[in-house]
Amino acid sequence: MSNKDTLHKISKHIVAIAKGKCTISDEEILAEKDEAVRDILMGLTYLYEDLELGKKELEDLNKGLEAKVEEATSLLQQKASALQESEKKAKDSEALFRSLIENNVHAMVLSNDKGQITLVNKKATTLFGYSIEEFIQLQIKDLLPPTIKGHNEKMKAFRDKAENRQMGGNRNLKAKRKDGSEFDVEIGLNTFELNGRKNVLATIDDITIRKANADALVARTQELQQFAYIATHDLKVPITNIESFYGLLKEQLSTDDEAVYESMQWMEKCITQANDKITDLITVSRAQGLSEPKTEHNVAELLDELKVLLGSEIKATNTTFITNFESAPFVTLGKSAIKSVLQNLVSNSIKYKHPERDPVITITTKDEGDYISLSVKDNGIGVNLPAQEEKVFGLFQRAHDHVEGSGIGLYIIKKIIADGGGKITSSGKVGEGAEFKAFLLKP
Q: Is this prediction's pTM over 0.70?
């Protein structure tokens, strides 16, 4: 075969391979006598095979890419849909949030971490006298009287602590209107994050009328307390006269007669009971009329003084104390008031000790926001609390009758703590002991 024919044949095979078809057979390769041509034919065969393999790999790769593109497209569509849904929810939440603020019966003021006011409702504009546009130019401190110092530092500390709280209920907290007039307020503060920044939502109520009514009630209560104090003292006079007459009668009558002796004993018991009851009433009247300035007291020192006062009872009962005042070493209340509170609670723990074990009294304090809590816990006979709380704190009521007492101690300390703006809670179980926790308002 001439070179021209050979080239023509090879060209035809190359064209066929380019079209994706191999026209070279094994017989043709074996029949070819020219070794160079045979090598070319074999090379073309290998080339075809490589091209086919590459084609298949390319197809597989293309399919994989198509699947990945389809998967990525689907994922993007899902994310886009989720983003749209998230944006819709965010808009709905914002609309609901604004609606809740706008339609709230309380004045509401939202401020950012710089103290700048960012949102108010109509109630706030009515209460303070500013328009919404004017409000947005103000800071929270602009709503406070000039007498309030250190507001920025306190608000920063509040935001950092992120603790929701109520303010003004037991304190003389005031706000300032646009015209400069001041009024009594009660404020609720709530913190939350918005767009990565800490915000404070203040709920503000004008309590001027409520406070005036409360002041009038306090004045009236003081009048009644004074009347009760005078009345109990007046009751003491006839009892004292009866007691004196009884003493004279006792000297003149013979006690040899058994009937006379029993009558005299009965009369003496009645006079003693009447005396004790009137003395208790005087004690209650004094406690209700007690008004003394609040001062700060070291709890450890108060307890040391009390241990000396109750030394004989503590020794006789082998009472031990466990204390922890590290987080709040000081409490604020009137001097005689805090002594009365601590003495009553500790005395009760000793008095109502369990017959099968020595008393262990645990006394701790803790910082709890607006309050310092003072806890007195014992391992005594216990009482079901708070189920019997009304009876335990009731006047002349007692949960246990086997121990002597008048039933006025816990009533008095509850009154003392409440008058100081605090509260007292109780918990316990029969046979396990009891815990009384006094929440004393911070200064």
A: no
